Amino acid sequence: MTELSILGVVQMDAIADGMVVPHYVADRKLRIALARVDGKVYAFDDLCTCSDERCPLSSGLLVGRTIMCQCHGSRFALGTGAVLQGSAAPLRVYEVREADGTLQVRLPEGGQ
């Protein structure tokens, strides 16, 4: 199994409750989205898995603990990445922790 590393991502107060923001991890060439719901932060791949168009989920509709793709209507569970509606593949989700005023996201070592 691939080891995981913890990367500092963004200041905790940069994400208001009920908001989704994109973040680009340059050294991984990876777009992730960060969503805060009821004080808990979720991290997941920002690009929808529903087609070749790859719409950003950070521009989607956040409802409770789900995110819906603005392009195709696929809906995902934030905590698991499971597809709740639509023909998309499950999203990759990442462990998040808050430490020293910073959000840290655990990403796979050595790439996507």
Instruction: State the end-to-end CA separation.
Output: 14 Å
How many domains make up the 3D coordinates?
A: 1
Tell me the strand order in the biggest sheet: 2-3-4-9
What does the radius of gyration come to?
Answer: 13 Å
The low-pLDDT segments are: 1-5
Largest sheet: 4 strands, antiparallel
Structural class by sheet pairing and helices: mainly beta
Give average pLDDT, whole number: 85
Shape: globular
CATH homologous superfamily label: Rieske [2Fe-2S] iron-sulphur domain
Number of helices: 0
| CATH architecture designation | 3-layer Sandwich
List SSEs in N-to-C order.
Answer: EEEEEEEEEEE
CATH fold node name: Rieske Iron-sulfur Protein
Strand percentage lies at: over 45%
**How many β-strands, per DSSP?**
11
Look at the structure and give the CATH class.
Answer: Mainly Beta
Helical content stands at: under 10%
GO molecular function: 2 iron, 2 sulfur cluster binding; metal ion binding; monooxygenase activity; oxidoreductase activity, acting on paired donors, with incorporation or reduction of molecular oxygen
InterPro entries: Rieske_2Fe-2S, Rieske_2Fe-2S_sf
Protein name: Rieske 2Fe-2S domain-containing protein
Organism: Kribbella jiaozuonensis
Question: Can you describe this structure?
Answer:
Residues 7-105 form the Rieske domain. It is a single chain. The protein has strands at 4-11, 19-25, 30-37, 40-45, 61-63, 66-68, 75-77, 83-85, 93-94, 96-99, 102-108. The protein is mainly beta and 112 residues long. It has one domain: Rieske Iron-sulfur Protein (3-layer Sandwich). The strands form three sheets. Strands 2-3-4-9 form a four-stranded antiparallel sheet, with no helix packed on it. Strands 5-6-7-8 form a four-stranded antiparallel sheet, with no helix packed on it. Strands 1-11-10 form a three-stranded antiparallel sheet, with no helix packed on it. A hairpin with a 2-residue loop joins strand 5 (61-63) and strand 6. The radius of gyration is 13 Å and the shape is globular. The two termini are 14 Å apart. Mean pLDDT is 85; it is low at 1-5.
